[in-house]
Amino acid sequence: MLGQLIRFVGVGGVATLVHVVIAMLMHGVLGTPPLQANFAGFASALLFSYIGHAHCTFRVSLNPGFQFLRFVIVALVGLTISSGAVFLIDTRLELGFGPAIAAVAVLVPVTTYVALKFWVFEATAKPEQTDWLGVGVSGALALGILALFWGRMINHDTAWYLVATREWLGGAALYTGLVEVNPPLNFYFTLPAIGLADLFGISDSNGEYLALALLIFLILQWCSVIARDELGFSTSRRLLLIGGLAAALAMPALKHFGQREHVMIILTLPWLLGELAATLAPLKRRISRAMVAALGICLKPHFVLFPLMVTVLLAVRQRSLRPFISASNLTFLAVGLSYVGFVALLHPSYLSHIVPVAQEVYGAYGAPFDSVLHSIRVELILVALAVVVAALGGLRQWQDAALFAVVALAGLSSYVIQGTGFSYHALPFRAFAIIACYFVILRSTRPNSAAIAALIVVAGLIGMNIERGFYRNYPAQEIARVAQEQGKVDSLMVLSSHVYAGPSAAIASGARWVSRYPTNWLVPGAMNRLAVTDCTRAPDSCARLQAIAAMNRTDNIADIAGARPDLLVFDLSTGYIDTPGFSWADFMAEDPAWPNILNRYTKIEETNRFVFYMKMPASKP
Fold first, then answer.
1. CA atoms of 168 and 175, how far apart (whole Å)
2. What is the pLDDT of residue 621?
3. Considering the entire predicted model, what is its pTM?
4. What is the mean pLDDT of residues 402-428?
Protein backbone atom coordinates (compact mmCIF):
# COMPACT_ATOMS: atom_id res chain seq x y z
CA MET A 1 0.00 0.00 0.00
CA LEU A 2 2.76 2.47 0.95
CA GLY A 3 4.71 1.62 -2.19
CA GLN A 4 1.60 2.18 -4.28
CA LEU A 5 1.07 5.60 -2.69
CA ILE A 6 4.71 6.54 -3.37
CA ARG A 7 4.36 5.48 -7.00
CA PHE A 8 1.09 7.45 -7.25
CA VAL A 9 2.81 10.61 -6.03
CA GLY A 10 5.79 10.04 -8.32
CA VAL A 11 3.68 9.56 -11.45
CA GLY A 12 1.59 12.61 -10.54
CA GLY A 13 4.72 14.72 -10.07
CA VAL A 14 6.21 13.70 -13.41
CA ALA A 15 2.84 14.28 -15.13
CA THR A 16 2.80 17.82 -13.76
CA LEU A 17 6.30 18.34 -15.15
CA VAL A 18 5.17 17.00 -18.54
CA HIS A 19 2.25 19.45 -18.50
CA VAL A 20 4.52 22.43 -17.78
CA VAL A 21 7.25 21.48 -20.28
CA ILE A 22 4.87 20.76 -23.18
CA ALA A 23 2.90 23.95 -22.56
CA MET A 24 6.09 26.05 -22.43
CA LEU A 25 7.48 24.46 -25.59
CA MET A 26 4.23 24.94 -27.47
CA HIS A 27 3.99 28.57 -26.45
CA GLY A 28 7.63 29.59 -26.40
CA VAL A 29 8.99 27.65 -29.38
CA LEU A 30 6.01 27.10 -31.66
CA GLY A 31 4.18 30.34 -30.77
CA THR A 32 0.93 28.57 -29.88
CA PRO A 33 -1.58 30.84 -28.07
CA PRO A 34 -1.53 30.36 -24.26
CA LEU A 35 -4.91 28.63 -23.98
CA GLN A 36 -4.17 26.09 -26.72
CA ALA A 37 -0.62 25.57 -25.39
CA ASN A 38 -1.96 24.84 -21.93
CA PHE A 39 -4.51 22.43 -23.38
CA ALA A 40 -1.73 20.59 -25.25
CA GLY A 41 0.18 20.32 -21.97
CA PHE A 42 -2.91 19.10 -20.15
CA ALA A 43 -3.65 16.47 -22.83
CA SER A 44 -0.04 15.24 -22.81
CA ALA A 45 -0.03 15.01 -19.02
CA LEU A 46 -3.37 13.22 -19.07
CA LEU A 47 -2.07 10.56 -21.45
CA PHE A 48 1.18 10.18 -19.47
CA SER A 49 -0.77 9.89 -16.21
CA TYR A 50 -3.05 7.22 -17.66
CA ILE A 51 -0.18 5.06 -18.88
CA GLY A 52 1.95 5.75 -15.79
CA HIS A 53 -0.73 4.97 -13.22
CA ALA A 54 -1.77 1.83 -15.09
CA HIS A 55 1.72 0.37 -15.57
CA CYS A 56 3.54 1.81 -12.56
CA THR A 57 1.11 2.76 -9.77
CA PHE A 58 -1.53 0.03 -10.00
CA ARG A 59 0.30 -2.39 -12.34
CA VAL A 60 -2.68 -3.38 -14.49
CA SER A 61 -2.98 -3.80 -18.24
CA LEU A 62 -4.18 -0.94 -20.36
CA ASN A 63 -7.70 -1.06 -21.79
CA PRO A 64 -8.20 2.03 -23.96
CA GLY A 65 -11.97 1.77 -23.90
CA PHE A 66 -14.10 2.50 -20.89
CA GLN A 67 -11.03 2.36 -18.64
CA PHE A 68 -9.58 5.42 -20.35
CA LEU A 69 -12.99 7.14 -20.40
CA ARG A 70 -13.25 6.62 -16.65
CA PHE A 71 -9.75 8.03 -16.23
CA VAL A 72 -10.74 11.17 -18.17
CA ILE A 73 -13.88 11.53 -16.03
CA VAL A 74 -11.79 11.31 -12.85
CA ALA A 75 -9.41 13.97 -14.20
CA LEU A 76 -12.34 16.29 -14.97
CA VAL A 77 -13.87 15.65 -11.55
CA GLY A 78 -10.53 16.56 -9.99
CA LEU A 79 -10.49 19.79 -11.98
CA THR A 80 -14.04 20.53 -10.82
CA ILE A 81 -13.18 19.84 -7.18
CA SER A 82 -10.13 22.10 -7.31
CA SER A 83 -12.04 24.95 -8.97
CA GLY A 84 -14.99 24.52 -6.61
CA ALA A 85 -12.76 24.47 -3.53
CA VAL A 86 -11.01 27.69 -4.56
CA PHE A 87 -14.33 29.37 -5.32
CA LEU A 88 -15.92 28.27 -2.04
CA ILE A 89 -13.01 28.89 0.33
CA ASP A 90 -11.45 31.95 -1.26
CA THR A 91 -14.38 33.71 -2.96
CA ARG A 92 -17.47 32.67 -1.02
CA LEU A 93 -16.08 32.15 2.50
CA GLU A 94 -13.29 34.74 2.02
CA LEU A 95 -10.75 32.66 3.94
CA GLY A 96 -7.94 33.43 1.52
CA PHE A 97 -6.21 31.79 -1.42
CA GLY A 98 -3.68 29.94 0.75
CA PRO A 99 -6.23 27.83 2.65
CA ALA A 100 -8.04 27.20 -0.64
CA ILE A 101 -4.92 25.79 -2.30
CA ALA A 102 -4.14 23.76 0.84
CA ALA A 103 -7.60 22.19 0.62
CA VAL A 104 -7.07 21.46 -3.06
CA ALA A 105 -3.71 19.83 -2.28
CA VAL A 106 -5.52 17.40 0.04
CA LEU A 107 -8.89 16.86 -1.63
CA VAL A 108 -7.82 16.30 -5.24
CA PRO A 109 -5.05 13.69 -4.66
CA VAL A 110 -7.18 11.75 -2.15
CA THR A 111 -10.28 11.61 -4.31
CA THR A 112 -8.20 10.86 -7.42
CA TYR A 113 -6.35 8.00 -5.74
CA VAL A 114 -9.55 6.42 -4.40
CA ALA A 115 -11.32 6.74 -7.75
CA LEU A 116 -8.38 5.28 -9.68
CA LYS A 117 -7.90 2.39 -7.28
CA PHE A 118 -11.52 1.35 -6.84
CA TRP A 119 -13.07 2.36 -10.13
CA VAL A 120 -10.69 3.03 -13.03
CA PHE A 121 -8.03 0.38 -12.34
CA GLU A 122 -10.04 -1.99 -10.18
CA ALA A 123 -7.90 -5.13 -9.99
CA THR A 124 -10.80 -7.56 -9.67
CA ALA A 125 -12.81 -6.14 -12.54
CA LYS A 126 -13.43 -8.33 -15.55
CA PRO A 127 -11.55 -7.10 -18.61
CA GLU A 128 -14.00 -5.24 -20.79
CA GLN A 129 -13.92 -5.82 -24.52
CA THR A 130 -13.71 -2.47 -26.24
CA ASP A 131 -16.79 -1.80 -28.37
CA TRP A 132 -14.88 -0.45 -31.35
CA LEU A 133 -17.86 -0.84 -33.68
CA GLY A 134 -20.03 1.14 -31.28
CA VAL A 135 -17.31 3.76 -30.94
CA GLY A 136 -17.12 4.18 -34.70
CA VAL A 137 -20.87 4.31 -35.29
CA SER A 138 -21.51 6.60 -32.31
CA GLY A 139 -18.71 8.89 -33.45
CA ALA A 140 -20.03 9.01 -37.01
CA LEU A 141 -23.57 9.79 -35.80
CA ALA A 142 -22.33 12.49 -33.43
CA LEU A 143 -20.27 14.05 -36.25
CA GLY A 144 -23.35 13.95 -38.47
CA ILE A 145 -25.40 15.73 -35.82
CA LEU A 146 -22.63 18.30 -35.37
CA ALA A 147 -22.50 18.92 -39.12
CA LEU A 148 -26.29 19.27 -39.18
CA PHE A 149 -26.27 22.14 -36.69
CA TRP A 150 -22.85 23.73 -37.24
CA GLY A 151 -23.08 27.44 -37.99
CA ARG A 152 -26.83 27.64 -37.47
CA MET A 153 -28.60 30.15 -35.25
CA ILE A 154 -29.01 28.75 -31.75
CA ASN A 155 -32.32 28.91 -29.88
CA HIS A 156 -32.92 31.93 -27.67
CA ASP A 157 -32.83 30.20 -24.28
CA THR A 158 -29.49 28.56 -25.01
CA ALA A 159 -28.28 31.88 -26.45
CA TRP A 160 -29.08 33.52 -23.12
CA TYR A 161 -27.08 30.92 -21.19
CA LEU A 162 -24.12 31.44 -23.50
CA VAL A 163 -24.30 35.21 -23.01
CA ALA A 164 -24.94 35.05 -19.27
CA THR A 165 -22.29 32.41 -18.58
CA ARG A 166 -19.68 34.63 -20.22
CA GLU A 167 -20.81 37.49 -17.99
CA TRP A 168 -20.66 35.19 -14.97
CA LEU A 169 -17.12 34.16 -15.84
CA GLY A 170 -16.33 37.84 -16.21
CA GLY A 171 -17.41 38.56 -12.64
CA ALA A 172 -21.19 39.07 -12.74
CA ALA A 173 -22.90 37.44 -9.75
CA LEU A 174 -25.60 34.89 -10.48
CA TYR A 175 -29.09 35.97 -9.36
CA THR A 176 -28.04 39.52 -8.50
CA GLY A 177 -25.85 40.70 -11.37
CA LEU A 178 -27.68 38.18 -13.59
CA VAL A 179 -31.39 37.83 -12.79
CA GLU A 180 -32.53 34.42 -14.06
CA VAL A 181 -35.54 32.33 -13.05
CA ASN A 182 -33.91 28.91 -13.54
CA PRO A 183 -31.51 27.24 -11.07
CA PRO A 184 -27.73 27.43 -11.56
CA LEU A 185 -27.04 23.99 -13.05
CA ASN A 186 -27.95 25.44 -16.45
CA PHE A 187 -25.01 27.85 -16.22
CA TYR A 188 -22.59 25.13 -15.12
CA PHE A 189 -23.66 22.96 -18.05
CA THR A 190 -22.81 25.86 -20.39
CA LEU A 191 -19.19 26.09 -19.18
CA PRO A 192 -17.86 23.34 -21.52
CA ALA A 193 -19.32 25.17 -24.52
CA ILE A 194 -17.58 28.40 -23.53
CA GLY A 195 -14.32 26.52 -22.91
CA LEU A 196 -14.44 24.77 -26.28
CA ALA A 197 -15.28 28.02 -28.06
CA ASP A 198 -12.26 29.72 -26.52
CA LEU A 199 -10.00 26.73 -27.05
CA PHE A 200 -10.70 26.36 -30.78
CA GLY A 201 -11.46 29.99 -31.58
CA ILE A 202 -15.04 29.27 -32.71
CA SER A 203 -18.31 31.03 -31.92
CA ASP A 204 -20.05 30.33 -28.64
CA SER A 205 -22.97 28.81 -30.56
CA ASN A 206 -20.66 26.36 -32.32
CA GLY A 207 -18.97 25.70 -28.99
CA GLU A 208 -22.37 24.64 -27.65
CA TYR A 209 -22.99 22.41 -30.65
CA LEU A 210 -19.55 20.83 -30.25
CA ALA A 211 -20.00 20.23 -26.52
CA LEU A 212 -23.38 18.56 -27.07
CA ALA A 213 -22.07 16.48 -29.97
CA LEU A 214 -19.29 15.16 -27.73
CA LEU A 215 -21.84 14.39 -25.02
CA ILE A 216 -24.08 12.60 -27.52
CA PHE A 217 -21.09 10.53 -28.71
CA LEU A 218 -20.31 9.40 -25.14
CA ILE A 219 -23.94 8.62 -24.36
CA LEU A 220 -24.53 6.69 -27.60
CA GLN A 221 -21.38 4.66 -26.99
CA TRP A 222 -22.51 3.95 -23.43
CA CYS A 223 -25.91 2.83 -24.73
CA SER A 224 -24.18 0.59 -27.28
CA VAL A 225 -22.28 -1.20 -24.53
CA ILE A 226 -25.46 -1.65 -22.46
CA ALA A 227 -27.29 -3.06 -25.49
CA ARG A 228 -24.44 -5.50 -26.13
CA ASP A 229 -23.63 -6.63 -22.61
CA GLU A 230 -26.98 -6.41 -20.79
CA LEU A 231 -29.78 -6.44 -23.35
CA GLY A 232 -28.18 -9.14 -25.53
CA PHE A 233 -28.74 -7.29 -28.80
CA SER A 234 -27.11 -8.67 -31.91
CA THR A 235 -24.68 -6.44 -33.75
CA SER A 236 -27.21 -5.42 -36.39
CA ARG A 237 -29.98 -4.67 -33.88
CA ARG A 238 -27.54 -2.79 -31.66
CA LEU A 239 -26.49 -0.56 -34.54
CA LEU A 240 -30.13 0.01 -35.47
CA LEU A 241 -30.81 0.98 -31.86
CA ILE A 242 -27.96 3.49 -31.76
CA GLY A 243 -29.14 4.99 -35.04
CA GLY A 244 -32.69 5.27 -33.72
CA LEU A 245 -31.52 6.91 -30.50
CA ALA A 246 -29.47 9.42 -32.49
CA ALA A 247 -32.52 10.27 -34.62
CA ALA A 248 -34.64 10.70 -31.50
CA LEU A 249 -32.03 13.05 -30.03
CA ALA A 250 -31.63 15.16 -33.16
CA MET A 251 -34.92 15.37 -35.05
CA PRO A 252 -37.29 16.65 -32.32
CA ALA A 253 -34.57 19.14 -31.29
CA LEU A 254 -34.06 20.81 -34.67
CA LYS A 255 -35.48 24.02 -33.22
CA HIS A 256 -34.43 23.42 -29.64
CA PHE A 257 -30.94 21.92 -29.68
CA GLY A 258 -29.34 22.46 -26.27
CA GLN A 259 -32.52 23.29 -24.36
CA ARG A 260 -32.73 21.91 -20.81
CA GLU A 261 -35.25 19.29 -21.94
CA HIS A 262 -32.85 18.17 -24.65
CA VAL A 263 -29.93 17.80 -22.25
CA MET A 264 -32.13 15.86 -19.82
CA ILE A 265 -33.14 13.38 -22.55
CA ILE A 266 -29.49 12.79 -23.48
CA LEU A 267 -28.32 12.22 -19.90
CA THR A 268 -31.14 9.84 -18.93
CA LEU A 269 -30.74 7.39 -21.83
CA PRO A 270 -28.14 5.05 -20.23
CA TRP A 271 -30.20 4.81 -17.03
CA LEU A 272 -33.41 4.06 -18.96
CA LEU A 273 -31.74 1.44 -21.16
CA GLY A 274 -30.25 -0.19 -18.06
CA GLU A 275 -33.75 -0.54 -16.59
CA LEU A 276 -34.68 -2.78 -19.54
CA ALA A 277 -32.15 -5.49 -18.61
CA ALA A 278 -33.58 -8.78 -17.38
CA THR A 279 -31.03 -9.01 -14.57
CA LEU A 280 -29.64 -6.29 -12.35
CA ALA A 281 -26.37 -4.77 -13.41
CA PRO A 282 -23.53 -4.49 -10.86
CA LEU A 283 -24.26 -1.85 -8.22
CA LYS A 284 -21.60 0.60 -9.39
CA ARG A 285 -23.07 0.61 -12.90
CA ARG A 286 -26.56 1.34 -11.62
CA ILE A 287 -25.26 4.13 -9.43
CA SER A 288 -23.14 5.71 -12.17
CA ARG A 289 -26.06 5.68 -14.62
CA ALA A 290 -28.39 7.16 -12.04
CA MET A 291 -25.85 9.85 -11.12
CA VAL A 292 -25.60 10.99 -14.74
CA ALA A 293 -29.38 10.86 -15.17
CA ALA A 294 -29.83 12.81 -11.93
CA LEU A 295 -27.80 15.68 -13.35
CA GLY A 296 -30.34 15.96 -16.14
CA ILE A 297 -33.31 15.60 -13.81
CA CYS A 298 -31.96 18.37 -11.56
CA LEU A 299 -32.23 20.82 -14.44
CA LYS A 300 -35.94 21.35 -13.67
CA PRO A 301 -38.14 20.33 -10.73
CA HIS A 302 -40.75 19.01 -13.19
CA PHE A 303 -38.28 16.35 -14.33
CA VAL A 304 -38.74 14.41 -11.08
CA LEU A 305 -41.77 12.96 -12.87
CA PHE A 306 -39.48 10.77 -14.99
CA PRO A 307 -37.92 8.59 -12.26
CA LEU A 308 -41.21 8.67 -10.35
CA MET A 309 -43.26 7.23 -13.20
CA VAL A 310 -40.57 4.67 -14.08
CA THR A 311 -40.58 3.56 -10.44
CA VAL A 312 -44.37 3.21 -10.44
CA LEU A 313 -44.19 1.06 -13.59
CA LEU A 314 -41.52 -1.20 -12.07
CA ALA A 315 -43.45 -1.46 -8.81
CA VAL A 316 -46.59 -2.54 -10.71
CA ARG A 317 -44.63 -5.08 -12.75
CA GLN A 318 -42.89 -6.55 -9.72
CA ARG A 319 -45.93 -6.17 -7.42
CA SER A 320 -43.59 -4.75 -4.84
CA LEU A 321 -42.60 -1.43 -3.30
CA ARG A 322 -38.92 -2.32 -3.48
CA PRO A 323 -38.33 -0.25 -6.65
CA PHE A 324 -39.03 2.88 -4.57
CA ILE A 325 -35.87 2.23 -2.56
CA SER A 326 -33.74 0.98 -5.44
CA ALA A 327 -30.11 1.99 -5.77
CA SER A 328 -31.07 4.29 -8.64
CA ASN A 329 -33.74 6.11 -6.64
CA LEU A 330 -31.49 6.47 -3.62
CA THR A 331 -28.86 7.93 -5.95
CA PHE A 332 -31.43 10.35 -7.38
CA LEU A 333 -32.34 11.40 -3.86
CA ALA A 334 -28.71 11.86 -2.80
CA VAL A 335 -27.81 13.88 -5.88
CA GLY A 336 -30.96 15.99 -5.60
CA LEU A 337 -30.40 16.81 -1.93
CA SER A 338 -26.73 17.55 -2.61
CA TYR A 339 -27.75 19.90 -5.40
CA VAL A 340 -30.19 21.76 -3.16
CA GLY A 341 -27.44 22.09 -0.55
CA PHE A 342 -25.02 23.27 -3.22
CA VAL A 343 -27.45 25.96 -4.36
CA ALA A 344 -28.17 27.04 -0.78
CA LEU A 345 -24.45 27.33 -0.02
CA LEU A 346 -23.05 28.87 -3.21
CA HIS A 347 -26.09 30.61 -4.68
CA PRO A 348 -28.32 31.54 -1.72
CA SER A 349 -29.86 34.46 -3.65
CA TYR A 350 -31.66 31.98 -5.88
CA LEU A 351 -33.66 30.54 -2.98
CA SER A 352 -34.00 33.76 -0.97
CA HIS A 353 -34.72 36.18 -3.82
CA ILE A 354 -35.49 34.60 -7.19
CA VAL A 355 -37.86 31.82 -6.08
CA PRO A 356 -40.17 34.11 -4.03
CA VAL A 357 -40.32 36.67 -6.86
CA ALA A 358 -40.97 33.96 -9.46
CA GLN A 359 -43.83 32.60 -7.36
CA GLU A 360 -45.40 36.05 -7.45
CA VAL A 361 -45.10 36.88 -11.14
CA TYR A 362 -43.90 34.04 -13.39
CA GLY A 363 -47.42 32.72 -13.94
CA ALA A 364 -47.90 35.38 -16.62
CA TYR A 365 -46.08 33.08 -19.02
CA GLY A 366 -48.81 30.45 -18.72
CA ALA A 367 -51.36 29.60 -21.42
CA PRO A 368 -54.92 28.18 -21.35
CA PHE A 369 -55.10 24.41 -20.99
CA ASP A 370 -56.85 23.89 -24.33
CA SER A 371 -54.17 25.95 -26.06
CA VAL A 372 -51.41 23.89 -24.45
CA LEU A 373 -52.92 20.62 -25.71
CA HIS A 374 -53.85 22.10 -29.09
CA SER A 375 -50.17 22.68 -29.85
CA ILE A 376 -49.42 18.94 -29.82
CA ARG A 377 -52.80 17.52 -30.82
CA VAL A 378 -51.59 15.73 -33.97
CA GLU A 379 -48.69 14.10 -32.13
CA LEU A 380 -51.05 13.01 -29.34
CA ILE A 381 -53.33 11.33 -31.87
CA LEU A 382 -50.43 9.55 -33.56
CA VAL A 383 -48.99 8.25 -30.28
CA ALA A 384 -52.45 7.19 -29.06
CA LEU A 385 -52.84 5.19 -32.28
CA ALA A 386 -49.62 3.29 -31.62
CA VAL A 387 -50.59 2.60 -27.99
CA VAL A 388 -54.01 1.24 -28.95
CA VAL A 389 -52.61 -1.05 -31.66
CA ALA A 390 -49.85 -2.32 -29.35
CA ALA A 391 -52.38 -2.96 -26.57
CA LEU A 392 -54.56 -4.99 -28.91
CA GLY A 393 -51.53 -7.11 -29.72
CA GLY A 394 -50.74 -7.77 -26.05
CA LEU A 395 -48.66 -5.41 -23.93
CA ARG A 396 -46.41 -8.12 -22.43
CA GLN A 397 -44.43 -8.55 -25.62
CA TRP A 398 -43.72 -4.79 -25.71
CA GLN A 399 -42.24 -4.33 -22.22
CA ASP A 400 -39.24 -2.43 -23.60
CA ALA A 401 -41.51 -0.08 -25.49
CA ALA A 402 -43.81 0.22 -22.46
CA LEU A 403 -41.05 1.70 -20.31
CA PHE A 404 -40.31 4.41 -22.86
CA ALA A 405 -44.05 4.94 -23.38
CA VAL A 406 -44.34 5.64 -19.64
CA VAL A 407 -41.41 8.05 -19.88
CA ALA A 408 -43.12 9.74 -22.85
CA LEU A 409 -46.21 10.04 -20.66
CA ALA A 410 -44.03 11.67 -18.00
CA GLY A 411 -42.83 14.07 -20.70
CA LEU A 412 -46.43 14.85 -21.64
CA SER A 413 -47.29 15.42 -17.97
CA SER A 414 -44.30 17.73 -17.55
CA TYR A 415 -45.39 19.69 -20.62
CA VAL A 416 -48.95 20.08 -19.34
CA ILE A 417 -47.92 20.96 -15.77
CA GLN A 418 -45.61 23.72 -16.97
CA GLY A 419 -48.65 25.08 -18.77
CA THR A 420 -46.96 27.49 -21.16
CA GLY A 421 -47.43 25.70 -24.46
CA PHE A 422 -43.76 26.37 -25.29
CA SER A 423 -42.79 23.89 -27.98
CA TYR A 424 -39.51 22.87 -26.35
CA HIS A 425 -41.37 21.75 -23.21
CA ALA A 426 -42.80 18.91 -25.33
CA LEU A 427 -39.35 17.66 -26.38
CA PRO A 428 -39.26 14.72 -23.90
CA PHE A 429 -42.72 13.59 -24.99
CA ARG A 430 -41.72 13.63 -28.65
CA ALA A 431 -38.29 12.05 -28.24
CA PHE A 432 -39.31 9.27 -25.85
CA ALA A 433 -42.43 8.50 -27.93
CA ILE A 434 -40.15 7.97 -30.95
CA ILE A 435 -37.89 5.67 -28.91
CA ALA A 436 -40.89 3.70 -27.57
CA CYS A 437 -42.18 3.13 -31.11
CA TYR A 438 -38.68 2.30 -32.28
CA PHE A 439 -38.46 -0.50 -29.70
CA VAL A 440 -41.72 -1.95 -31.02
CA ILE A 441 -40.11 -2.07 -34.47
CA LEU A 442 -36.85 -3.57 -33.14
CA ARG A 443 -38.65 -6.26 -31.13
CA SER A 444 -40.84 -7.34 -34.03
CA THR A 445 -39.48 -10.45 -35.74
CA ARG A 446 -41.96 -10.12 -38.62
CA PRO A 447 -44.31 -7.44 -39.98
CA ASN A 448 -47.38 -7.00 -37.76
CA SER A 449 -49.96 -4.34 -37.02
CA ALA A 450 -48.06 -2.99 -34.00
CA ALA A 451 -44.79 -2.62 -35.93
CA ILE A 452 -46.57 -0.96 -38.87
CA ALA A 453 -48.38 1.47 -36.54
CA ALA A 454 -45.10 2.23 -34.74
CA LEU A 455 -43.36 2.87 -38.06
CA ILE A 456 -46.13 5.27 -39.08
CA VAL A 457 -45.82 7.14 -35.78
CA VAL A 458 -42.02 7.40 -36.01
CA ALA A 459 -42.25 8.65 -39.60
CA GLY A 460 -45.01 11.07 -38.64
CA LEU A 461 -43.23 12.50 -35.59
CA ILE A 462 -39.91 12.88 -37.40
CA GLY A 463 -41.64 14.28 -40.48
CA MET A 464 -43.46 16.96 -38.48
CA ASN A 465 -40.22 18.05 -36.85
CA ILE A 466 -38.47 18.20 -40.22
CA GLU A 467 -41.36 20.30 -41.53
CA ARG A 468 -40.95 22.70 -38.59
CA GLY A 469 -37.34 23.04 -39.62
CA PHE A 470 -34.41 24.54 -37.81
CA TYR A 471 -34.59 27.39 -35.36
CA ARG A 472 -35.43 30.76 -36.90
CA ASN A 473 -35.71 34.09 -35.11
CA TYR A 474 -36.95 36.90 -37.33
CA PRO A 475 -37.18 39.57 -34.59
CA ALA A 476 -33.55 38.95 -33.59
CA GLN A 477 -32.52 39.08 -37.25
CA GLU A 478 -34.37 42.40 -37.66
CA ILE A 479 -32.47 43.87 -34.71
CA ALA A 480 -29.19 42.49 -36.07
CA ARG A 481 -29.95 44.05 -39.46
CA VAL A 482 -30.43 47.50 -37.94
CA ALA A 483 -27.31 47.08 -35.83
CA GLN A 484 -25.24 46.16 -38.87
CA GLU A 485 -26.61 49.08 -40.88
CA GLN A 486 -25.41 51.44 -38.15
CA GLY A 487 -21.86 50.24 -38.52
CA LYS A 488 -20.09 49.10 -35.39
CA VAL A 489 -22.55 48.32 -32.58
CA ASP A 490 -20.59 46.88 -29.66
CA SER A 491 -23.45 46.62 -27.18
CA LEU A 492 -27.23 46.59 -27.16
CA MET A 493 -30.27 46.21 -24.94
CA VAL A 494 -33.86 45.36 -25.83
CA LEU A 495 -36.77 46.32 -23.60
CA SER A 496 -39.14 43.41 -24.14
CA SER A 497 -40.96 40.61 -22.35
CA HIS A 498 -39.82 38.11 -24.99
CA VAL A 499 -36.48 36.39 -24.41
CA TYR A 500 -36.06 35.74 -28.13
CA ALA A 501 -35.79 39.49 -28.77
CA GLY A 502 -32.69 40.04 -26.66
CA PRO A 503 -29.68 37.72 -26.27
CA SER A 504 -30.28 36.10 -29.66
CA ALA A 505 -30.11 39.54 -31.27
CA ALA A 506 -26.86 40.26 -29.45
CA ILE A 507 -25.28 37.03 -30.73
CA ALA A 508 -26.62 37.60 -34.26
CA SER A 509 -25.18 41.14 -34.37
CA GLY A 510 -21.93 40.29 -32.58
CA ALA A 511 -22.73 42.78 -29.82
CA ARG A 512 -22.59 42.46 -26.06
CA TRP A 513 -25.88 42.04 -24.23
CA VAL A 514 -25.75 44.55 -21.36
CA SER A 515 -28.92 43.74 -19.40
CA ARG A 516 -28.80 41.58 -16.29
CA TYR A 517 -32.11 40.09 -17.43
CA PRO A 518 -32.66 37.71 -20.37
CA THR A 519 -35.96 39.57 -20.76
CA ASN A 520 -38.04 41.82 -18.53
CA TRP A 521 -39.71 38.75 -17.06
CA LEU A 522 -40.78 40.43 -13.81
CA VAL A 523 -43.05 42.96 -15.51
CA PRO A 524 -45.84 40.89 -17.16
CA GLY A 525 -46.85 39.05 -14.01
CA ALA A 526 -46.67 42.16 -11.85
CA MET A 527 -48.72 44.25 -14.29
CA ASN A 528 -51.30 41.54 -14.90
CA ARG A 529 -51.88 40.92 -11.20
CA LEU A 530 -52.06 44.63 -10.45
CA ALA A 531 -54.74 45.00 -13.13
CA VAL A 532 -57.04 42.52 -11.36
CA THR A 533 -56.21 43.37 -7.74
CA ASP A 534 -58.28 45.77 -5.65
CA CYS A 535 -55.49 47.73 -4.01
CA THR A 536 -57.83 49.25 -1.44
CA ARG A 537 -58.55 45.76 -0.10
CA ALA A 538 -55.11 44.26 -0.67
CA PRO A 539 -52.63 47.12 -0.28
CA ASP A 540 -49.76 44.86 0.78
CA SER A 541 -50.14 42.68 -2.30
CA CYS A 542 -50.22 45.73 -4.57
CA ALA A 543 -47.17 47.19 -2.86
CA ARG A 544 -45.21 43.98 -3.45
CA LEU A 545 -46.19 43.84 -7.11
CA GLN A 546 -45.39 47.50 -7.65
CA ALA A 547 -42.01 46.98 -5.99
CA ILE A 548 -41.26 44.03 -8.27
CA ALA A 549 -42.09 46.01 -11.42
CA ALA A 550 -40.13 49.00 -10.09
CA MET A 551 -37.12 46.76 -9.38
CA ASN A 552 -37.08 45.61 -13.01
CA ARG A 553 -37.35 49.25 -14.17
CA THR A 554 -34.60 50.43 -11.82
CA ASP A 555 -32.30 47.61 -12.88
CA ASN A 556 -32.87 48.52 -16.53
CA ILE A 557 -31.88 52.11 -15.85
CA ALA A 558 -28.82 51.05 -13.87
CA ASP A 559 -27.72 48.70 -16.66
CA ILE A 560 -28.18 51.34 -19.37
CA ALA A 561 -26.48 54.06 -17.32
CA GLY A 562 -23.58 51.78 -16.44
CA ALA A 563 -22.96 50.12 -19.80
CA ARG A 564 -24.28 52.86 -22.11
CA PRO A 565 -25.25 50.41 -24.89
CA ASP A 566 -24.79 51.63 -28.46
CA LEU A 567 -28.23 50.40 -29.50
CA LEU A 568 -31.39 50.63 -27.38
CA VAL A 569 -34.49 48.87 -28.68
CA PHE A 570 -38.14 49.11 -27.55
CA ASP A 571 -40.40 46.14 -28.33
CA LEU A 572 -43.83 47.30 -29.52
CA SER A 573 -45.27 43.86 -28.77
CA THR A 574 -46.88 43.70 -25.33
CA GLY A 575 -46.28 39.93 -25.17
CA TYR A 576 -47.74 38.33 -22.00
CA ILE A 577 -48.91 41.74 -20.69
CA ASP A 578 -52.70 42.00 -20.60
CA THR A 579 -52.87 45.76 -20.02
CA PRO A 580 -54.26 47.40 -23.21
CA GLY A 581 -51.87 49.86 -24.77
CA PHE A 582 -48.93 48.96 -22.56
CA SER A 583 -45.80 50.79 -23.68
CA TRP A 584 -42.23 50.14 -22.57
CA ALA A 585 -41.44 53.80 -23.10
CA ASP A 586 -44.27 54.82 -20.74
CA PHE A 587 -43.29 52.13 -18.26
CA MET A 588 -39.70 53.35 -18.11
CA ALA A 589 -40.81 57.02 -17.93
CA GLU A 590 -42.34 56.36 -14.51
CA ASP A 591 -38.82 56.66 -13.09
CA PRO A 592 -37.65 60.30 -12.86
CA ALA A 593 -34.16 59.26 -13.94
CA TRP A 594 -35.36 57.96 -17.30
CA PRO A 595 -35.53 61.22 -19.31
CA ASN A 596 -31.86 61.92 -18.66
CA ILE A 597 -31.02 58.40 -19.86
CA LEU A 598 -33.09 58.65 -23.04
CA ASN A 599 -31.72 62.11 -23.86
CA ARG A 600 -28.40 60.44 -24.63
CA TYR A 601 -30.03 58.56 -27.52
CA THR A 602 -31.57 59.51 -30.83
CA LYS A 603 -34.33 57.63 -32.60
CA ILE A 604 -33.05 56.11 -35.84
CA GLU A 605 -35.79 53.77 -37.05
CA GLU A 606 -39.24 52.39 -36.25
CA THR A 607 -40.69 49.19 -37.70
CA ASN A 608 -43.93 47.34 -37.08
CA ARG A 609 -42.23 45.54 -34.21
CA PHE A 610 -39.44 47.72 -32.78
CA VAL A 611 -38.34 51.28 -32.13
CA PHE A 612 -34.57 51.76 -32.38
CA TYR A 613 -32.47 54.34 -30.59
CA MET A 614 -28.76 54.92 -31.19
CA LYS A 615 -26.41 56.37 -28.61
CA MET A 616 -25.35 59.90 -29.51
CA PRO A 617 -21.64 60.68 -29.59
CA ALA A 618 -20.35 62.19 -26.38
CA SER A 619 -20.30 65.97 -26.60
CA LYS A 620 -16.88 67.59 -26.64
CA PRO A 621 -15.99 69.71 -23.59
1. 10
2. 45
3. 0.85
4. 92
